[in-house]
Each structure stands twice: as structure tokens, then as C-alpha cells.
Design a protein that fits this description.
The complex is a heterodimer. By secondary structure, chain A is an alpha/beta fold. Chain A contains six helices and 17 strands. The longest helix of chain A has 14 residues. Classes of the chains: A alpha/beta, B alpha+beta.
Chain lengths: 307, 125
């Protein structure tokens, strides 16, 4: 049941070197640099995104993810969900408006898989980058690199998948769109949606908590994914795997790493989900095909290389 | 001849290199991997891990190649190298002092003797 959560709104990532990270996220993936703050953080977004930013980079000693934020409909929803998060047993913290430039009050909370999440109702809306909202042209002329359209979702690794599923379904109103079940009936992967996308966030079971697998950015076409692969070679960027297709969600994809080892994905296509749909199930004996539909086998790195 | 500075900087050719590695000409060094009873040749202008891949060796596990995931954690037993910043989640200050490194973040400056396969997943207690 929908609870007033709208979409993934931002992700804050830690990088070892800001200039190298900007060469990756801004110049290669093609995100737009929107702002910087007095902590040295850099704010970016995909050109189709209406809110001011969706990716925040912070220089640190240890790469990985600080948090993912979801935008909710309004402040009434924010108040309501804050209470429900406390009731659920989350550690809840108020982050004052303005701590991120242009973002309103955020409600930060932990999760059974160890990841930190946030809800917020207000963020400055600067509109789609480079085009008008009246009689808009198809796209702006001067996009860079892969010309990523938006931050789409992320995949996180941790232990207590059932606990985090309960949090996202019962408190935040997400649906389980796709899952991987092992031979004992244990769920080892869960793809959750708050929209009609096959995933707005996903989790895979892993012995270590609070790990980050990838942040994903949306492209329009398979041709765009192939062109992204060319750009990865042109720039000698660290490749993980692809171009290929996933069995899960059926998205067409390529995976690569930022210069600090955080994994990025650009993808296109994929299944859709409505609230009356039963979850799509893959079984672990077909895990290779579920993850990499063409190779039909996993590479060790996909399960092990995390930040 | 490609200089180290140019090699580090292929993605932003107009800018100064930010990494601290000195400007030396490309050289090749022999890298002995004692735990695998094997060796490969590594270039001074590439990270040790990428050098291993270019020499078609599989003696060090390959992960992110960016100092983040820890899969290529090794110990350098002998030889000289320069290093870039590595994730503190995988190389503590004490380990760094004991020559534990991520192979994707070091650049050989002499022949090396190394021990690979030091990566471990740390399960929650």
C-alpha cells in the first residue's frame, strides 16, 4: 500500500579523490554539476531530473555509500512516517533543512541490513537541465559522455533481508517486484519498487552488513548502452561486466567502477510492476541467468567487489 | 614514450596530474608472487594490478581496480613502490606500515616480491 513515498531522490557516495570522481560522474556518465558546499561536497544530477540534485559526492578515506534519500509527497507524510519509523524500532535522527544545499528537513534512519536511509519532503526544484518546461525540446545540446538521464536506483548488500523488506513494505509502502529464492525457500535477493519501475532499490544477501554494490543511471536505448561501453574503453575505465541483459528485471546493462572502486551501472529498458502484480521469482539454481542473461554464469567479482 | 604523468592523466589531458607518483619514464619490473609460485612483468606507468592483467597473469584477484573493494589486497615482501590513497576499510594505518597494500593502488619502482590473496569478507558477529 502506498504511504506517500514518491521516488529515490538522492544518494551520497564517498570517494577517495574528488577530481577523479568528477571525471567519472560528470565527464564520463554525463551528470550535471549543480553545486558545491563548504564541506567540499559536490552535487550532481541527471539532466531530466527536476529537483536540484540527486548525487552527492564526499571525499573520504573509505569509499562506499553514506545514505540514500527518498522524497515523500509533503511534510504531513514526513511527520507520519517519522512516527512509524520510531515505532518500527529504527534509530531516527533529524537532519536540519539546509544541511544539504537546497534540501529541506531530512529524517534519517537505519535499517536491519545496516544501511542508512532518509526521507524528505522539500528540495529546490531547478527544473530539467538545459531545456524549458514550456514547449520543451527533446534534449539539451551540450550533454557530456554517456548523457545519463537520471539517478535510477541502487543495489545494497547485507544480512537481514527479511527485516529490511518488512521496513520497506510495512512502513514505507514499497512493493516486492522481483526476488531470488534458494532451495530452502530463503530469499537471497529482493527488488523493491515504489513506482511502476521494476526496482527503485534492491538488496542481495551477504554476510557483511551495510555494503554498497552499485548506483544506477538510466539511458534511453540499447544503442546508448553500447555507446557507453565504447566510452568506458576510450577512457580506460575499470569494467566489471557487459554490455549484457539481466534476467532479473530484464534491463539491458553495463557495469563499471568509479576511480575509488564504487560500482556504477548504466542501463535501459526493463520490466514494469503494478501493485496487483505477484512478485517475479528466480531460483538460485538459475542464478547465473538471473543476473547475466547472456553469459548465464556469475563472475565472482559481482558478488564480492563491494564498497 | 608515454610519460607517467600523461598515462595517469588520459581522462583529463588539460589538467595537472593529482597523484603523487614521481615523473619517471615507463619501465618494466619483475614481480614474484611467492604464494602462487609464479611471476609476472609489471609496467611502472600502470598500477601493479593492471600491469598483472596486461601480462595475462591471474596471480592477484581483480575487483574494482580503484582502491575500494579490497579484493586485490597483497603484502609487499621486498621492493620499492609508490601508492595512491586506499580504502581504510581494507588497509589500516598499521597494515600500511607493514606493507599491506591494494595492488590496484601501487606503482612498481623496482622488482617486487609479493604475497597475494589477503582479502577476506568480514561476516557480522
Amino acid at each position: 500500500m502506498k504511504k506517500g513515498v514518491m521516488r529515490p531522490g538522492h544518494i551520497q557516495l564517498r570517494v577517495l579523490d574528488m577530481e577523479e570522481a568528477l571525471a567519472h560522474y560528470r565527464d564520463l556518465i554525463g551528470l550535471i554539476e549543480m553545486d558545491r558546499d563548504d564541506q567540499g561536497r559536490v552535487y550532481l544530477k541527471g539532466w531530466t531530473e527536476v529537483d536540484k540534485f540527486s548525487v552527492v559526492l564526499r571525499e573520504a578515506d573509505e569509499p562506499g555509500m553514506d545514505f540514500v534519500g527518498f522524497k515523500v509527497l509533503n511534510n504531513q507524510v514526513l511527520e507520519q512516517l517519522q512516527g512509524e519509523l520510531v515505532e518500527f524500532g529504527c534509530q531516527v535522527e533529524n537532519i536540519p533543512a539546509g544541511e544539504l544545499n537546497g534540501c529541506g528537513r531530512r529524517v534519517r534512519f537505519d535499517s536491519p541490513t545496516g544501511h542508512m536511509f532518509e526521507l524528505y519532503a522539500d528540495k529546490e526544484q531547478t527544473g530539467k537541465w538545459g531545456i524549458s518546461s514550456t514547449n520543451p525540446d527533446a534534449f539539451p545540446m551540450d550533454l557530456k559522455g554517456m548523457k545519463a538521464t537520471r539517478f535510477d536506483h541502487c543495489l545494497l548488500y547485507g544480512g537481514d533481508l527479511d527485516g529490511t523488506l518488512k521496513l520497506f513494505q510495512q512502513v514505507l509502502g514499497f512493493d516486492l517486484a522481483e526476488q531470488v529464492m534458494d532451495e530452502n525457500g530463503t530469499r537471497v535477493a529482493q527488488f523493491l519498487t515504489i513506482s511502476t519501475k521494476a526496482h527503485d532499490i534492491a538488496f542481495i544477501k551477504h554476510p557483511e552488513d551495510s555494503k554498497f554494490h552499485h548506483a544506477s543511471f538510466y539511458l534511453e536505448t540499447w544503442e546508448d548502452v553500447l555507446r557507453a561501453a565504447d566510452l568506458i574503453s576510450i577512457t580506460d575505465t575499470s569494467l566489471d561486466i557487459g554490455p549484457t541483459r539481466h534476467g532479473l528485471t530484464h534491463g539491458k546493462t553495463i557495469y563499471f567502477f568509479d576511480p575509488s572502486g564504487n560500482r556504477s551501472e548504466v542501463f535501459c529498458g526493463g520490466d514494469y510492476h503494478y501493485p496487483d502484480h505477484e512478485p517475479v521469482t528466480w531460483t538460485t539454481d538459475q542464478l547465473g541467468k538471473a543476473i547475466f542473461y547472456h553469459d548465464r554464469k556469475l563472475n565472482e567479482r559481482f558478488l564480492t567487489a563491494l564498497t | 614514450m608515454t610519460t607517467t604523468a600523461q598515462a595517469f592523466n588520459t581522462r583529463k589531458e588539460q589538467q595537472e596530474p593529482r597523484c603523487s607518483s614521481p615523473d619517471v619514464s615507463e619501465q618494466s619490473y619483475l614481480v614474484q608472487v611467492v604464494n602462487r609460485d609464479s611471476w609476472f612483468t609489471a609496467r611502472s606507468d600502470k598500477s601493479l594490478l593492471v600491469g598483472m592483467e596486461l601480462d595475462a597473469s591471474q596471480t592477484i584477484a581483480v575487483g574494482c581496480r580503484g582502491g575500494g573493494c579490497g579484493m586485490c589486497k597483497i603484502r609487499v615482501l621486498a621492493g620499492k613502490y609508490d601508492s595512491k590513497r586506499m580504502s581504510r576499510a581494507h588497509i589500516s594505518e598499521q597494515e600500511q606500515a607493514e606493507d599491506y597494500v591494494l595492488a590496484c593502488r601501487i606503482y612498481p619502482r623496482s622488482d617486487l616480491v609479493i604475497e597475494s590473496d589477503h582479502f577476506t569478507v568480514k561476516p557480522e558477529l
